[in-house]
Structure formats: C-alpha cells, structure tokens
Amino acid sequence: MTNRIISALLFTSLSMTLWAADTPAPAVVVDQVKRVEVSSGFQTVGRVEATERVDILARVSGFLEKQSFVEGSDVTQGSELFLIEKDSYQIALQQAQAQLAGAQATQKNARTELTRAQALKKRNAVSQAQLDQKAAEYDQAKASVLQAQAGVKRAQLDLSYTQVTSPIAGRIGKANFSTGNLVTPSSGVLATVVNLDPIYVEISVSEKLLIDARRQGINTENPPFAPRLILADGSQYEHLGEFNFVDPEVDPNTDTIGVRATFPNPAHVLLPGQFVTVKIETKQPQFALTVPQSSVQKDREGFFVLAVDRNNIAQIRRVDVGEQFEGLWAIKSGLDQGDRIIVEGLQKAKPGKPVSPTQE
C-alpha cells in the first residue's frame, strides 16, 4: 500500500514538472528606453494686443467729402483716409495772407517813418518824444506782422487737417461716419488703425510662479526662456516670440505680474483681443531618458519597471522618476538608453521568469 502511494506521488510530481516545462512563456509587449528632447517650462493663457492702435479723429469741423480707404484693408503711414471740405479753410488762409500783407506794408511804412525821424533828430528838427513815438509805431507794426504770420500758419494748419491721414501703418477698421456727414473734433472716432505685425501677447504670471520665473530668466535681458503659442484649434504657432516687458510691480488685487512678449505676425494670424495658450520653454533643447507612463509601477519601496534582459527574463528595475509629459515619464536614474521594458502584459510577467517579448 505504501509503495502504491509513493508511486502515485512520484507520478504526479513528474507530470507537473513536464507540464510546467511545456507551458509557454507569457507574451508581453516591450519598448526601449529612449533619449528624447523635452521642454522645461509652463503654460498659461495670454491675450493678443496690437503693438500700435490709433483712433482717427477729426481736428477741424466740416462735411466729409471723401472716404479714401476700403474698410478692413491695410493702409500705409501718411496715406489719406478722409477728406473734409476745404473751401472755408482756403478762404480763411487767403484772409490770413491778406492780413499778413497789410501788416508787412504797415511795418515797411513805420520803418521808413522811423528812419526819417532819426535823421531829423540829428538836426534837432524833431523832439525826442516824436522820435520815441515813431519807434513805438515801428515796434507795434513788427508785432502785427508776427501776429499775422501766426494767423497764416494757423490757417495753413487747419487747411492741412481737412486731409485726414493715418499716423501709422496697419489695418484699418470700420468707418464710423460716411461721406456727407458733418464731423467736428468732438464727433468721436472716425475709424481705428491697428498695427498687426509685429504683435504683442500679454500674460499674467501667478504669485506661485513669480519667484521661479524670475530665477529662470523671465525678463527682457537675454532670457533663457522663450514663449511659443498654441492657437485655439490646437495647432502650434510657427513663429517664436521674445519677451520685451516685465511689469516692475505685482498687482495687489490678483497677486500676479504682467509679462509681455512680441511675436512676428506677417500673415495676420493673430488678431488683437483673441486668447492663446502661451508655452514658456527653454531656448536650448534639453534631453532626458523616457519611458511610457504605462510601464511605471509603484510599491512600498518606490517606483519600478519590469525590464527584459538578453535571455528574455523579466527583472525588477528600481527607477528615480522625473516629470511627466505627453504620455511619457522622464527617468533620472535606474535605466539606460536602449533597455527593454514591458509596457503591456505586466500582470502576466513574473520577476525572474521568462517572457515572450514583442517590440511595440
């Protein structure tokens, strides 16, 4: 009886050994540890602002005779935008010129009278009082000429204001007054011109990021960080910006500091008032060893991954992890570039046991 029991146990043990030997290694998916470029920085929301914005106003009163631009088009600096009727201002200029001519004639006559009186005084033919009177009349005539000259310049200036021009180059908006309307200096904005290239993006850095931002170079003196933009459709703006202004004070109401960056905008993709996501990253590329986040596990001792050696044996590798980004986890230590790690089938793999790896 005892021999039968011993024989049965030996048979069972041999069967299990043979079964274990025939059991295939579990299939897993592996990926290699890669060294990739990573970005260091943070994201925030910014608002696009025009570098220049000018409200066009009427500087003289009159009826609008002409609108010289197409709404929404680009205009050059000094180009004509509106024309105000100029007849009354031409008449005023002619009147001022006539007054100047009269004042100059009076001055010429006063100069002659003064010269004659000075000659007569040498012969004691006139009194000193008479000579002083002629000198005063000459000085008054000179003052009248100066006043008339100022009147001519004022009339010329008013006449020039009838041609309303753009002080900057940019894109003009909608006209608020049409031809035939009476406009005055108090009528309000005739139209607005904004400069769209380059363009500003203004952001507010929170108090928590303020100290770190200062340490990492968020300033206008050759900062190591540079801003990039993510547009509303999720695409990345093609041009890199640069910081040109940092507010010297913290806003006590929001505990933030204002920062402004300049971006090229040749295609006018960015428009004032729109919101964009601003990514503030290092100018110089930075690299790190990375693994998929799905491969990293954690126990009481810390983070680890299951690596596969040359003999396809699963091994625990303790790792020191860094930042997470785009589905990856930066590895500070514990792995080398090219190491194979399990990314799928972790529940089937056992440390120290063989696996059947398939490259992802």
Automatic annotation (TrEMBL):
Lineage of source species: Bacteria, Pseudomonadati, Pseudomonadota, Gammaproteobacteria, Oceanospirillales
InterPro entries assigned: MdtA-like_b-barrel (IPR058626), MdtA-like_BSH (IPR058625), MdtA-like_C (IPR058627), MdtA-like_HH (IPR058624), RND_pump_MFP (IPR006143)
Main location class: membrane
Domain of life: Bacteria
Protein family: Belongs to the membrane fusion protein (MFP) (TC 8.A.1) family.
Residue ranges annotated for the Multidrug resistance protein MdtA-like beta-barrel domain, each copy included: 198-282
Cellular component GO terms, alphabetical: plasma membrane
Coiled coil feature spans: 86-137
Signal peptide bounds: 1-20
Location of the Multidrug resistance protein MdtA-like barrel-sandwich hybrid domain: 53-185
Alphabetically ordered keywords of this record: Coiled coil, Signal
Sequence ranges assigned to domain Multidrug resistance protein MdtA-like alpha-helical hairpin in this UniProt record: 93-162
Organism: Neptunomonas marina
Sequence ranges assigned to domain Multidrug resistance protein MdtA-like C-terminal permuted SH3 in this UniProt record: 288-348
Single GO molecular function: transmembrane transporter activity
GO terms under biological process: bile acid and bile salt transport; response to antibiotic
Record localization: Cell inner membrane
Protein name in the entry: Efflux RND transporter periplasmic adaptor subunit
Membrane topology: Lipid-anchor
